[in-house]
Amino acid sequence: MAGFAACVSAAYAYQREFRDFPGEDQMAPVSAEQLRPSEFVFGRLMYPSGGGGGRFFGRDWRQGGRTNWTNDYPAGDRHLMTALRRLTRIDGRPIEQPINLEDGDDIFNWPFLFAARTTSIDLTGEMAAKLREYLDRGGFFIADDMWGPNEQQAIADTVKQLYPQRELIELPDDAQAFHMLFDLDKRYQILGQWARFNGMRPLDGVSYDPHFKGAFDEKGRMTMAAWFNNDTGDSWEWADDPSYPEKFSALGIRIMLNYVVYAMTH
Q1: Overall fold of domain 2-24+37-265
Q2: What is the CA radius of gyration of the chain?
Q3: For residue 2, what are the CA distances in angstroms to 8, 11, 20?
Q4: Over 50: is that where the pLDDT of 45 sits?
Q5: What does DSSP say about strands 140-146 and 112-116: parallel, antiparallel, or unpaired?
Q6: Which positions ≥6 away from 178 have C-beta within 8 Å?
Q7: 100 has which bridge partners?
Q8: Are the CB atoms for 146 and 115 separated by under 8 Å?
Q9: Pick the residue with more confidence: 198 or 7?
Q10: Contact present, 211 and 50 (Cβ < 8 Å)
């Protein structure tokens, strides 16, 4: 037992410290209690966009500040973790962990990664190699909030960059990920808060067909998921706003909790 405790302490010692970046939302200051070691931590992938040499419309992705990776951050992450702690018995940390692939081997301390608006994700060769090793070791990665063929291409290219022989395939209704905690045989499109002002239309105005796709390893384990024509992150971010349709949050939270349990058990 003493040896086990020492190993656990060593693992926490090598984890990158929590960093709070400028994002879309202003939240209350984070307390030490909220950052205590937990069974599950929601990892948010920091990533460069659009081949801009580390910058996105003049903003450095490493500093946050409304670059693509900060979409729905941090309110979406923290609202989701509130739901996870209420609806499951998972010991989840209330606060997310932003994860940068450039931070040495830190990614291997966080077995779950979520990325928002990967419409122009542009990983370097070194980043791709690190992410591939992470997935091969048992990590899990989800990309969300891409609309129409043009926005979906970047994540499809990323899959090919990681694994030339793999591709994203549509998940059938009986896929395990839809039946971990909640049976979600039938799913509908999840619109973002912006839909309240455009007549409840998709972000691109035409993509009414939601898709839930995954990429699998040689043993049949889903290692990557991509949610197209859905704004799942908004369904968490705006879950406490009475003007946002409750049905979107109801499905968005249930979908993610199913995937969290899938990732932790496969």
Answers
A1: Rossmann fold (3.40.50)
A2: 18
A3: 10, 14, 33
A4: yes
A5: parallel
A6: 171, 184, 185, 187, 212, 255, 258
A7: 46
A8: no
A9: 198
A10: no
User: Residue 47 in contact with residue 121, Cβ under 8 Å?
Assistant: yes
Q: What is the pLDDT of residue 59?
A: 74
**CA distances in angstroms from 10 to 6, 28, 208, 209, listed in the order given:** 6, 30, 48, 47
**3-state SS of the chain?**
CHHHHHHHHHHHHHCCCCCCCCCCCCCCCCCCHHHCCCCECCEEEECCECCCCCEECCEEHHHCCCCHHHCCCCHHHHHHHHHHHHHCCCCECCCCEEEECCCCCHHHHCCEEEEECCCCECCCHHHHHHHHHHHHCCCEEEEEEECHHHHHHHHHHHHHHHCCCCCCEECCCCCHHHCCCCCCCCCCCCCCHHHHHCCCCCCCCCCCCCEEEEEECCCCCEEEEEEECCCHHHHHHCCCCCCCCHHHHHHHHHHHHHHHHHHHHC
Give which of 85, 84, 87, 140 is closest to 114, Cα–Cα. 140
Domain locations in the chain as residue ranges? 2-24+37-265
Size of the chain in residues: 266
Read off the pLDDT of residues 59-85 as tens digits, 9 standing for 90 and up: 789 998 878 999 999 999 999 999 999
The answer, yes or no, to whether the previous bond of 74 is cis (omega within 30 of 0) is yes
CA-to-CA distance for 259 and 249, rounded, in angstroms?
A: 15
